[in-house]
Specification:
alpha/beta, Rossmann fold, 9 helices, about 25% strand
Length: about 290
């Protein structure tokens, strides 16, 4: 089992023929991802050879779905064109759109997310500005390095890309059912709560690690959800304990205002919900080990 992505997922790449798209298509293929096509209207009807695998290029997402049965799209589309690309994926009703692109204008993200909702939420959006998701040993949709961990029974949901990788590496001997990088922008599709609900329902996930960061109230809302709905043990980490108040940090969403949004406030909310919270990624991994060891 896994959440959102498994060995049967058929993946297309919007923006596959660009330099970044090609680089990560190659890496996803090496991880065993079933990539069935790329999308580029200017190169429709051609194909790309990647290490001996011939991948067709389609003019539209709808055509790619019709010809291949694709059910996941990974988007490596420049910020200026990303909104149109996501809307196209939503119109084609692809079940999962993983938006890797960084630097998308917030009003564009808000617009395509609202559009997905207006169309009945048939397309789950992960991102934007995220590393994607991986189900180790089965499929990798995005830019998470596939060789830093193995299949296991920990579920990971994280706002931060690099902290996703660090946590996977820290717990590599135990392994992960799935790891989902949801992105740190102010407007994102899939939230901590969505991933927590999916991991709670996944019989092959025994423990959930949740990584948040300063700014906003997503972690506080996740804490309330955990208290009411999650029976599995949850271990948390909040990046930004040493951040000065009022300063915008690396992620566009990480803005601290007063005491709300600080790492200390988030830690308090999570601990009140029964979540063990580490002060560093290494300490968080240690807490996870202790819980799994019983």
């Amino acid at each position: 089992m896994a959440i959102f992505l498994n060995k049967d997922s058929k993946v297309i790449v919007q923006g596959m023929t660009g330099a970044t798209g090609m680089k990560h298509t190659k890496l996803m293929l090496a991880d065993g991802t079933n990539i069935v096509g790329g999308v580029n209207p200017r190169k429709a009807g051609t194909s790309v050879d990647i290490d001996g695998t011939e991948i067709p290029v389609f003019g539209t997402v709808a055509e790619a779905i019709e010809k291949t049965g694709a059910n996941v799209s990974v988007l490596f589309v420049p910020p200026a064109f990303a909104k149109a690309a996501v809307v196209e994926a939503i119109d084609a009703e692809i079940p999962l759109a993983v938006v890797i692109t960084e630097g998308i204008a917030v009003h564009d993200s808000a617009a395509f997310y609202a559009y997905a909702v207006s169309q009945g939420n048939k397309t789950r959006i992960i991102g934007p500005n995220c590393p994607g998701l991986i189900t180790p040993g089965q499929s990798n949709a995005g830019i998470i390095p596939g060789d830093i961990t193995k299949p296991g029974r920990i579920g990971l949901v994280s706002k931060s890309g690099t902290l996703t990788y660090q946590m996977m590496y820290e717990l590599r001997d135990i392994g992960f059912s799935s790891a989902v990088g949801i992105g740190g922008d102010p407007v994102i599709g899939t939230t901590h709560i969505d991933a927590l609900a999916a991991f709670e329902a996944d019989p092959d996930t025994d423990l959930i690690v949740m990584i948040g960061e300063i700014g906003g109230d997503a972690e506080e809302r996740a804490a309330a959800f955990i208290k009411e709905n999650v029976k599995k043990p949850v271990v948390g980490y909040v990046a930004g304990f040493t951040a000065p108040e009022g300063k915008t940090m690396g992620h566009a969403g990480a803005i601290v205002s007063g005491s709300s949004g600080t790492a200390a406030a988030k830690k308090e909310a999570l601990e009140a919900a029964g979540v063990k919270v580490g002060k560093t990624p290494t300490e968080t991994a240690k807490l996870a080990r202790e819980i799994l060891a019983g």
